[in-house]
Amino acid sequence: MNKRIFLEEIYPIMQEQLDCGGKAAFNITGTSMLPFLKQGRDSVFIEKPKRAIKKHDIIFYRRLDGNFILHRVIGKKNGRYICRGDNQTENEHGIEPSQIIGTVIEYNRKEKFKSANCLSHRIYSLFWVNTVFFRKVYRKIKGTIK
What we know:
Elements (H helix, E strand, L loop, with lengths): L6 H13 L4 E4 L15 E5 L10 E5 L5 E10 L2 E5 L7 E4 L4 E10 L2 E4 L3 H12 L1 H14 L1
Antiparallel strand pairs: 1-2, 2-7, 3-4, 3-7, 4-5, 5-6, 7-8
């Protein structure tokens, strides 16, 4: 029997593991990181940031409303991060460093483990972050046609 466990239930254990210098892994839920990460297929490994968080990093954070979020950093302003899911076109501003639980260091995509710092991921991130304007236009045109 498979039991679904929610992040809220295991978060205290995950936090303890990360605080001790360990890693935590979980399966992706939601669609905000498509096409890069897909629910039911992919998982990520996170750890406490060991260096300054920079543009294109994927961070796992908790919003003020308690929701857990996995999004890509697209900038920083006034000491706060600007993030966006790969499947989104609107930015989320004001992510405080204290809200960040960890950064993705590795991911399991299509049953292959890869470092979040590998060349193919860095190229993908650079392309995807910098083409958001074209995706906005495409979605607008697509919506108008329908």
